[in-house]
Each structure stands twice: as C-alpha cells, then as structure tokens.
C-alpha cells in the first residue's frame, strides 16, 4: 500500500500569503498537511520586544524557544516525511538537524531576497540555511548566491497565482466607485516607484496606490492624495486589478529582480499588466499581446497614455494575458509539484502524491 505524503509546513498562515497558498498546494495534491503558523509567535511585536530584537537580533527568548520546541514536538508526534519551511527566520539549525536525523526531507523556500535584502533574513537563518536538504528560490539572481554560500541543492521556481483568490471578480456599483481608476499599484513604497507614480499623478491620471510605507513619500508629492493608506489582499486585491485600466508591476531596486507574484496575479484577475521590462517577463508574456512593459519613467507614461485611451486593445491584451497564465498552469499547486519532483518524490494520478 502506497503511503500518503505527510508534510509539516512552517510559515505565515494568513490567507493571501504565498506561504499559505503553497501549503494549500500540498493539500490539493493529496498530501496530509500539518501547519505551524508563525503569525501567532512573531511579527506583532511590542515596543520592548522591538528594542530587545534590535540589540539581541532574536525575538524574546521564551517566545523563540517555545516556537522551536513546538516544531520539535510536532516532528515527534506527527512524524512527517517533509519539513517545509517558508522564510524561517527563527527556525534553528538544531531543529533542521533534528528533523534530518529522523529521515525527514527538509525544504526551505524564501519568498524574498536572502542575500540582497537583509531585512528578510536573520543570523539564525544564515546558519540554518546550509542544513536544509533543498532550498527553493523564485529569484534568479539568488540561485548562484545560494550555491556560493554552500547550499548544494538549489531549486528555482517562478512565482504563481492562487486560483482560489486570484480570479476575475464582478464589481458592484459601489465597488466600481471604490476601485475603478486609470492606474493602480499594489506593493510597498520604494522611492523610484514613488517618483514614477508621482510623474503620472502630475499628468492628471486617476491613481490608486495600496501598500505599506507610502506615508514616507515627500509631502510635496502630488501622489500623496492618491495613496489609500493601507495594504490590500485577496479578493479586494483582485477587485483593484479588475477596476484599474492599467495595473503597474514594479520590480524592487534592491536587487536584479526579474518577476514577482504580481506578474501572475494581475493577469489571473483579468487585469491589464504593465510591468518592468525584463528577460523573464518577456519570456512569460508576449509584449503588446499578452501584457506590456516599460524600461523608464518616460516609457511608463507613454504606455499608460496609450492603453488608458485604447480600451479595445487594452481589453484584448488583458484577456490574452489571462488565457496565458491559465495555459501555463502558473498555480501554487503546480509549483509544489515542481518542488516535489526536484526532491525526487513522484506525483501519482491526478490527486495523490506518494513516496517513490
């Protein structure tokens, strides 16, 4: 009798996070999944905790130890085949070795930059990352850096969309008033992004900007009046992409990023995707047919002018982009299948994953 794959997942468990969508990918493949959510342990820090972390570089000792002890006890009671950790800033090297000694395959996925954006790592992760059997990254530039750091089995996978969340959503009259706009952007503030969007604001486009840190832009920016003041997730985000004539997909300036989750999420919601021009973007979508791209603030303004004024072309491109992500099966379920294939675990039938 073939054994159902048991996967212990550790990471953010809130709906809309790519970790949760990956965990659901295992479930959809028929795996038996147990989840330890990091949300309840970390991230909502008090001021004293933040000061402690600034000095010690780790969370409060009691919280940190309780978290790792929970993983250890779950390994003992659940006896998984795989320990799958997303980000894992506070999962210790000792826990990874503890799992490996029990014959568990350990896999790490970092949704951000491990090497080029130090906000998304920790001294704990820097030590632990070498102990994982497999590391997974969606950042092309990180692959070689992982290898140079000493990681032997590095798997590159593209980002994805979650069909349970990212799909066309009809807008009510009230939602049309809330979400319809010329240009939308969903993501954190970086100054080059703010400058480019402020340039559009000065050209009198209607703009809606959702995300964090947008209160940090210069007070004299015209863009200030278009910032919604909060992040947005799940079906609400799908409505943003549905309501905007153009949804902009900036890439971070922190490293040589080639694509992001928005690359697939916007077209999956049948939104018009106008992204930064990169080799990977052009490999995924035919420019001017399934999406379009820009390489400068000036070209962004030119493309926005064209597509906001040409509804028929815009809608045709959005539809082709939607069809492309469906055709590519760019889902988290499919990405999980790729991880399991890389790990040497076969998919049997259409719904079940079993050990080879």
Write up this protein.
This protein has 356 residues and is α/β, with parallel strands linked by helices. It folds into two domains: 177 residues, 3-Layer(aba) Sandwich (Rossmann fold); 156 residues, Glycogen Phosphorylase B (Rossmann fold, 3-Layer(aba) Sandwich), CATH 3.40.50.2000. It contains 14 helices and 13 strands. A six-stranded parallel β-sheet has the order 2-1-3-4-5-6, with helices on both faces. Strands 8-7-9-10-11 form a five-stranded parallel β-sheet, sandwiched between helices.
Total DSSP helices: 14
The average pLDDT value, as a whole number, equals 93
Report the end-to-end length measured between terminal Cα atoms. Answer: 12 Å
The structural domain count equals 2
Strand order of the biggest β-sheet: 2-1-3-4-5-6
Biggest sheet record: 6 strands, parallel
Short description:
The protein has 356 residues and is α/β, with parallel strands linked by helices.
């Amino acid at each position: 009798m073939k054994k159902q794959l048991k996967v212990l997942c550790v990471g953010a468990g809130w709906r809309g996070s790519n970790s949760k969508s990956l965990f659901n990918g295992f479930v959809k493949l028929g795996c038996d999944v147990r989840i330890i959510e990091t949300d309840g342990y970390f991230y909502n820090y008090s001021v004293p905790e933040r000061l402690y972390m600034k000095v010690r570089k780790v969370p409060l000792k009691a919280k940190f130890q309780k978290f790792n002890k929970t993983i250890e006890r779950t390994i003992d009671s659940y006896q998984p085949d795989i320990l799958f950790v997303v980000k894992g800033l506070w999962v210790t090297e000792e826990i990874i070795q503890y799992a490996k000694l029990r014959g568990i395959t350990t896999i790490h996925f970092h949704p951000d930059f491990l090497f080029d954006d130090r906000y998304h790592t920790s001294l704990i992760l820097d030590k632990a990352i070498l102990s994982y059997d497999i590391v997974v990254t969606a950042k092309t530039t990180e692959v070689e850096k992982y290898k140079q750091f000493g990681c032997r089995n590095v798997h590159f996978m593209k980002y994805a969309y979650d069909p349970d969340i990212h799909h066309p959503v009809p807008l009510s009259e009230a939602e049309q008033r809330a979400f319809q706009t010329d240009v939308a952007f969903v993501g954190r503030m970086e100054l080059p992004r703010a400058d480019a969007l402020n340039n559009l604001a000065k050209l009198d486009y209607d703009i809606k900007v959702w995300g964090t840190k947008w209160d940090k832009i210069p007070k004299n920016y015209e863009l200030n009046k278009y910032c919604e003041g909060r992040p947005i997730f799940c079906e609400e985000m799908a409505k943003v992409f549905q309501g905007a004539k153009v949804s902009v997909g900036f890439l971070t300036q922190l490293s040589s990023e080639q694509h992001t989750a928005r690359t697939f999420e916007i077209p999956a919601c049948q939104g018009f995707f106008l992204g930064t021009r990169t080799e990977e973007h052009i490999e995924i979508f035919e420019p001017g047919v399934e999406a379009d791209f820009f390489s400068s603030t000036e070209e962004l303004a030119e493309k926005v002018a064209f597509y906001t004024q040409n509804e028929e072309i815009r809608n045709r491109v959005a539809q082709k982009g939607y069809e492309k992500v469906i055709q590519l099966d760019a889902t988290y379920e499919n990405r999980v299948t790729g991880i399991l294939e890389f790990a040497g675990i076969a998919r049997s039938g259409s719904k079940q994953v079993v050990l080879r």
